[in-house]
Each structure stands twice: as C-alpha cells, then as structure tokens.
Amino acid sequence: MRMSNQAPSDLSLIEPTLDAYADVPGSLIAILQATQDAYGYLPMDAMEHIAERTGTPIATIVGVATFYAQFRLEPVGKYLIMLCQGTACHVNGSELISAAITDELGIDDGQTTDDGLFSLKHVACLGCCSLSPVMMINGQTYSSLTPDKAKKVLRQLAAEAAEGGAA
Amino acid sequence: MRLVVGEGSCGLAAGAGAVYQQLEELLAQGNEAGVELGITGCNGMCFLEPIVDLYDDEGALHRLVKVQAKDAKAIYEAATTGNLSLVDKLRISASDAEFLDRQTRIALRDCGVIDPESLDDYLAHGGYQAIGKILSQGMSQEDVIHEIDVAGLRGRGGAGFPTAFKWRAARDAKADETGQKYLICNADEGDPGAFMDRAVIEGDPHSLIEGMLVGGYAIGATEGIVYVRAEYPLAIVRLRKAIADATERGYLGQNILGSDFSFTLRIKAGAGAFVCGEETALIESLEGKRGMPRLKPPFPAQAGYWLKPSNINNVETYANVAWIINNGGAAYAAMGTEGSKGTKVFALSGKIARGGLVEIPMGTTLREVIFDIGGGIRGGKQFKAVQLGGPSGGCVPAEKLDTVIDYNELAATGAIMGSGGMVVMDEDTCMVGMARFFLDFTAKESCGKCVHCRLGTKRMLEILDRIVNGQGEEGDIEKLEELCYAIKDGALCGLGQTAPNPVLTTIRYFRDELEAHINEHRCPAGECRELITYFIDKDACVGCTSCARQCPAGAITGERKSPHEIDPALCIKCGNCKTACRFGAVRVR
Fold first, then answer.
1. Residues of B with Cβ-Cβ distance to A86 under 8 angstroms
2. CA A91/CA B434 separation, integer angstroms
3. Does the pLDDT of residue B377 top 60, yes or no?
4. Is the CB of residue B361 less than 8 Å away from at least one CB of chain A?
5. Cα separation of the two ends of chain A
6. CATH fold label, A79-166
7. Would you tell me which of B120, B202, B344, B421 could form a disulfide with B194, CB atoms 3.0–4.6 Å apart?
8. Mutation for A interface: B189, B195, B429, most A CBs within 10 A
9. B230–A147 C-beta distance less than 8 A
10. Predicted ipTM > 0.95
11. Distance between the two ends of chain B, CA-based, in angstroms?
C-alpha cells in the first residue's frame, strides 16, 4: 500500500470555492466536495487552509471529512475500482469478486497498488441490482461479474495504461 | 417512426449509451424517412436492458430488448424502411411483457415513457396540472392537505408515517419573524438493494419537483431542498436540468404561474452516510455537519433545518402527490388495504428471474410480486426467503409468501415495508451469512452517537463472525437476542432501533440454520467458506479440464478425459471451479 508523502498543495485551486462559500453557513460539505474534485482527495494542508478561511476549527473539518464515505484523505490510483457491496450483489457473489481483485492486485478495501494504478473501494449499493454483481471503474460499470471476468477487466486496464505510458 | 433508448443508470450500465451512439451515427448518415431518436428513463425492466422502444407511424409501440450496439444497424434499417420484421428477434417475449402489464403505475407513471430531459414532454403527459389546479382554483392549504389525507398517503421512505399529518404539523408550526419554513426531499436512498428513488429522479424529475411544489404550498414553505445521494451522478444531472428548466418557464421561482405563491428549489449532494436517511441526521448533514441524529422532540416540523419548521418526505412520496391532486384522494384510496392505501414501488433483485422495478397496489401478496411478476427463482432453484427493508428489515420465509403488502401485515412478520428493497434468495443463500452481511453494514454505518448502537452492533457482528467461521458457541443465540433488545431500547434513531431486525428474523425463521452453524459447524446452504469443502463428483466429471485451468491455487489435478480431484489442503475456496464446470460435477459439502 502506498503512503502519502505529499508536496504542498496548490491552494489557489480552491480559492474560487472559498470566495463563494466561506461565509455561507452550512457549506462545509460542499467546500470539501469541491476540494476533493480539485485534488482527487483531501490534502491536510488544504483542510487547514479551509479552517483558516472559514473560521471553523480544524477538528470540525477533519471530523466531517472522516464521517462521510465519499471523502478520501489519501490520493487514489489512476483507476478507482468501486466494488458494489449492496444486498443483491452480496447474494450474487460480490465476496468472490472482492477476493479475485485482492488476488489479482494485492490490495484490500481502501488501498492503492504500489504503482499507483489501482485503488479498491467497497461502496454501498450502486443501484444496478439487476446486473449484479457489479463494479464501477472511473464511471464505467462492469456488470454480471465472475471472478474471472473481473480479473480480465483489470488486466485489460493495466495493459491500456502500459500502452498509454509507452506512447 | 420514433426510436427511444432507455437511458437510466441500469440501461447505461448494460450498454445503452453505445446503442444510442450507433443509432445517432447511422441516422446522421441517412434519414430520409425522418426517424426521430430520443431517450427515456428506466421503465423498470432492468433484466432486459438495454431497451429500445420503436413507435411506428400509427404510434404503436414495438419494444426491443437486450439490444447491443451490433443490433443498431438492423433497428436503423427497420425504422427507416418500415420493414419491422428485421427486428423480430429483438422483440420482447409475451411472458416478459407481463412484467409491466401486471403493474399499476402511479409514482412511476412517466418513467420509461417520457424524455426526462424535456419539460415539454412532461407537460404533454399532464405535467404541472396539479399545481396549476391548486393555484387557479384557489385551493387552500387545508384543501390540499385534506386531499392527501383522504388518499391515505403514508411515507414511502420506510416508516410509513401519514403524510397529511406531517404536512399539517409543519403548516401549523409557528415560524419565527423571518417566516421561513423549509420543504425537504430525502433522496438519500441508502438501503442497499433499493433504487426506485433514483429511477424516479432519473426518469421523471419534474414529477418530484411538482410534488414538492404542492407540498411547499401546503405547508407555506418558500424554499425546498433535495438531498441526493452522491452515488447517483446521473440523477443529480437530470434534476439540475429539470430545476433550471422549470425555473426558466415559471414553474419554480417567484409568483409561480402568476400567483402569490413563490417556491425555489436547490440540490444538496450527500457525501455517503446511510444514517443521513434518518431525517434529523439529514438535517445535520444539510447544515454541513457530521450526520448524527438529533433527539426528538422537537420534531423537524417545529425545529428542523436551521431550527425552522421543516417537512421531510422521500422521493416516492412526493412522486405520488401530483397524481392525487389531479385524480382525487378517493381514487388513490380506492386501491390498497384498510391501513395501507395506493401503490408501492419495489426494487426486485437477487436470485430472481425478472429483476427490476415493480409498482403494485398495496394488498398484493409477496407471492404475486415474486412469482407472477418476477417470474420466480432463476435457474430452477428453490425459493428460500425474501429480504424486505434492507438493514432495517428482515427475511420473510417461504411459508409467509401469502402475506399481503401492507405496513402492518409486513411488520407482523418481523420485516418492514421499508423503502422498497426486495431481495430474493434461493436455497444457495446462507441466512446466517445474510444476517452477518447486514450487521456488518449497520456496524460500519452506525454514527457512533449512542453506545448501544455503536458497540452493540459491533459485538453482534463479532458473534456472527465467529458463527460463520465455525467457532460458534452454545449460548450465542441467546447473547444475540439480548443484544438485539438492548440496542432496540437504547438507540436514539431508526438506524439503531431497527438494526437488530435482520438477526431477529433469522433467529425466528431460520433457527435451524443458525444451530447447524453453531453446533455442527456446518453451513446447510454451502456458502460459508470456512465451513465448506469443494469436491468433484467422479461420476459426473468428464475430465474436460476447465476447472483445473480456472483454479488459481493449482489445487485441481487429473488427466484429460478422466475424473479430476481437488486437494482440500491447497483449495482456497474461491468457487472458480464450480462456476467453470458445465456438468455440475463440482460440489460443496
């Protein structure tokens, strides 16, 4: 699993959001969502900056950031695998898919591969229950998975990334 | 001729986007016949996605199912030449068509029919007539609430609280000097296995807006907020467009349709927390805080969002409102049972032959929904149980299949109506594993405010973990029961109070399965990995080698064309071999 050792964040990326929302009560979640959109995760220095600009204690901000499943405190890989853990997917074997992904990539829920290519995240129902089990990778849904099919998808993405890197 | 591609989330996941794109490209190359191409939301037949509806020049519908991008050419030819025999092999079968024919659609009336991105299409299907009727006829707030009262509409989010009661309380609540009241929509559909609210927003966003307009008028609110799950990006996009269009055309904003009534609407994207489906936790989240429930009273009707009087209903509840105003409360109440009026939408999934969205009148039996509409169990297996209400509900066994859908009748089984998740299980599903699955969910989603919920669910999960791993002990069932009742009594909100339900129904209906795990270290369904062994039936194995090739652990050996064998010491129980075997020779004991 990769650990973060991040360079200082470019805080200007969130200035427009802060200009618009810093003084609007109740906007903390919206500000954090915009921040995550900007950096791909919530860097600590960005949260400190939000604390300063909004006058909210940093503990409150980290408290909110760690409460909600959507927020990440670590950068994610190029491909974010969102593996559905809904009831229908569970009944149709999502546990086997999870094991297959771990077997293929060596990462568990919440972790990122050393090469920074894949992150795995177990998510609550994606709402495609009739196509279960499903996973979503960067907005694309892969449905009616088998362990084998899931591995093939990952291998194909890895191959595409390698090609892209070479080109 | 008109071609309409179903572009709900499930349709898109199944490949509807590529089908649309192909059709668009073909029509751009040549379309002298003037074929129109459009989109619609989910019609609920998820098991047949992607779906293309072809309307011929007489307006008759020809429904084409399981359409792939490679079929686009044939559809294009059929539509442009009028030779519909070209798409005969894609036509929906008569038995599959029954899935829709047996339903009564009110909340889903326009889903899969209209273009969700077109306000004009909504208007053409009777849209915004309810709010128009209220404003032009000068209906009073009480007139509106009375109609909802007569309809007997109860909250479709799960608890089933009478909507008219909530509206009256919010209307009667005294606002402060600002006069501000809020009308909120709970679209934080968190029950894993329920997706009807998403389908409504994606397929018919204006019906939600209109329901909220009526509610806002009834309670005297001028501002509405829709709290949508962040996992529903398409729903957010469509709702945002619908709000912008409705605002531009004067259905939202100041002095709606030239009246004194003003109402604005905005979206707040949730950030992923199941507990935010609880109304006071949702309000905390709207205020930008951790979504932890508040003590009630005061109820949101007295002190809700920013402590102002607020009313919260879920999407499906609002989606019924315009129909009730247009058709009258009595017409709505004519459907259903004594205590449960109208219709309810269910998301049918799991081991079901035809999964999707089903809207049926209250009073229908579970058997009718699962077998007559859903087509029963997939692959000829035995029905075992149906899970209702998700993490707050329970599993209803086969002997209770004739239970009618009614808030009280379902509660009597130990399950709940819930928001409408209906996950069907067959003989291969381990009921202890299901209970563990839900406890794992609630333990993770407990906000941590109440000790009983925070620690109690964790302790229950530990016990269930032991049981599914073959380390159950005598007295575990009693310990679970004790924890169940302690959590029910000690938790502040609905999440905690209902979290034990899946375990309680498992103890009630599937005690023998629990006991087999605990006393015999055996999983009768053959699902709990620690308790099962894979083996190959020598008489059934033909030696095709496909299992050995799929085995990631190299645990399967054998000569080609002679029976194979699994080494239990090497087997990691991934189940690949069982999936790979076409002869049913890989077994579990």
1. 192-193
2. 8
3. yes
4. no
5. 27
6. Glutaredoxin (3.40.30)
7. B421
8. B195
9. no
10. no
11. 57
